[in-house]
Write a structure and sequence with these properties.
It contains 17 helices and 14 strands. A hairpin with a 2-residue loop joins strand 9 and strand 10. By secondary structure, it is of the alpha/beta class. The chain has three domains: about 5-35, no CATH class; about 45-285, inorganic pyrophosphatase (n-terminal core) (Alpha-Beta Complex); about 295-425, Diaminopimelate Epimerase, Chain A, domain 1 (Roll), CATH 3.10.310.20. Bound molecules: manganese (II) ion (MN). Manganese (II) ion binds next to helix 4.
């Protein structure tokens, strides 16, 4: 009797619950049950390949190295290039549930390397912000000063070692020992193309705003591995380097190819223009955060965002401050800034490095050029005559030979200055 009572009661409750539970709730229920039984952790790409690196089955390591500026374009391009190569070479594959898996019996592996010192990533305010947003731990990367990348370690290694350079194609003097390992170069800068003895492939296209455009077009136009990394993360450098496709910058900060690839990749990602603009503005406000930037100190600021570009015998260092001269001036004092700048210039000018350009890239831009025996006046008149609307007013600093300060109405991008340098020195090569 009581059994019958319970059976009919539970039947009643079951039927009632089906009436009350809406379709949407059933969906939610299904999802949470799936979650409950899906014991698989999210695929952590960096950790998976780093763990495999220790395995005895690995006979060949291909390091994918970004440039020594350590900007997001070079880091994310290196990350995505390694991912593209690992997928292309079936080192990462998809199981029957379309979940990414790493092939544990592979004999070779591609791994991204950040070309700055371990422990200094915190200086990249915008980089830190982007990594946090996508739950990427900067410690999971390899860094150029890690033991396994030292000259000694590479030479003694019994494994086959090679490098892919991404977002640069000239090694700094201090890294010239890597030259013999370079097998591939992917770059979007107009440069003197140095020769590497074991180079197999060179992918250099110009003008393109972001190296990421090149990387996406080479590896990910047919298929984007969204289960490993969100599309939004991958297109971050395009957004930054094109200044969110700002119209005025068309032709030098970005080109139609950037836009085409960006649109193709984002088409299926449900990322709205509005959403991307908010994301872009958030990154920018980190990048130009005055308080956080000043707290890093002048020495760090001089070192942290430095790019090298080279033509023949002319090597140029391009240092960018993301705050204004006035901000620096008020915080550190003019004397202190000059002192540190001079120290930096003296330390870094060498037989190879002929010119250092320090640039304050906010609103009213200010530049300092340190150029012993250099045709700086020709360069400046070229910049002034280039018709881009930027004018330099030259002030020579009497305390410091060959040290020039200049004002420009707007931030002059390296992408404008670089071709002008090239033009100036084309006959000197
Ligand atoms: Mn780049």
């Amino acid at each position: 009797m009581s059994n019958k009572y319970y059976i009919s009661l539970s039947l009643f409750v079951l039927i009632l619950s089906f009436i009350i539970i809406k379709k949407d709730d059933i969906k939610k229920l299904k999802i949470s049950i799936n979650k409950l039984f899906n014991r698989e952790k999210k695929f952590n790409y960096l950790l998976e390949i780093k763990n495999l690196l220790q395995s005895n089955s690995i006979k060949e390591i291909i390091y994918v190295l970004g440039n020594s500026g350590g900007d997001l374009d070079s880091i994310i391009s290196a990350y995505m290039t390694s991912l593209g190569e690992n997928i292309e070479n079936n080192i990462i594959y998809y199981d029957e549930f379309n979940n990414p898996k790493i092939n544990k019996s592979t004999s070779k592996i591609f791994i991204p390397v950040i070309n700055i010192k371990r422990g200094t990533y915190f200086e990249r305010l915008e980089g830190k912000f982007v990594f946090n947003k996508f739950n990427i731990n900067d410690n999971d990367f390899l860094y150029i000063n890690d033991n396994e990348l030292s000259k000694n370690y590479l030479e003694k290694s019994k494994k086959k070692i090679s490098f892919i350079l991404v977002d640069f194609s000239e090694l700094d003097e201090s890294q010239s020992y890597l030259g013999k390992y370079v097998q591939k170069v992917i770059d979007h800068h107009l440069q003197n193309i140095s020769t590497f003895p074991n180079l197999k492939k060179r992918i250099i296209e110009y003008p393109i705003g972001s190296c990421m455009t090149l990387v996406l077009s080479h590896y990910f136009l047919d298929y984007f591995p969204e289960k490993i990394i969100p599309i939004q993360f991958a297109i971050t450098p395009i957004l930054i380097d094109t200044s969110n496709f700002k119209k005025e910058y068309f032709g030098f900060k970005w080109d139609i190819f950037d836009l085409k690839v960006y649109n193709l990749i984002t088409k299926n990602a449900n990322l709205t223009t509005n959403e991307m603009t908010i994301y872009y503005n958030n990154i920018r406000s980190e990048m130009f955060n005055i308080e956080k930037t000043l707290q890093l100190g002048i020495k760090v600021l001089l070192r942290k965002d430095t790019k090298n570009f080279i033509w023949g015998i002319y090597h140029i260092k391009f240092v960018v401050f993301t705050i204004s001269f006035e901000n620096m001036h008020n915080y550190y004092g003019k004397e202190k800034i000059l002192e540190e700048e001079k120290k930096y210039c003296y330390e870094n000018i060498s037989n190879n490095t002929k010119c250092i350009i320090i640039c304050f890239a906010q609103n009213e831009a200010k530049y300092t050029f340190y150029t012993p025996n250099f045709k700086i006046k020709n360069i400046i008149s070229r910049i002034n005559n280039a018709g881009k609307g930027f004018l330099f007013n030259i002030k020579q600093d009497n305390n410091f030979d060959n040290y020039y300060m200049m004002d420009a109405k707007e931030g002059v991008s390296r992408k404008i200055i670089e071709p002008l340098f090239k033009e100036e020195f084309k006959n000197d090569k």
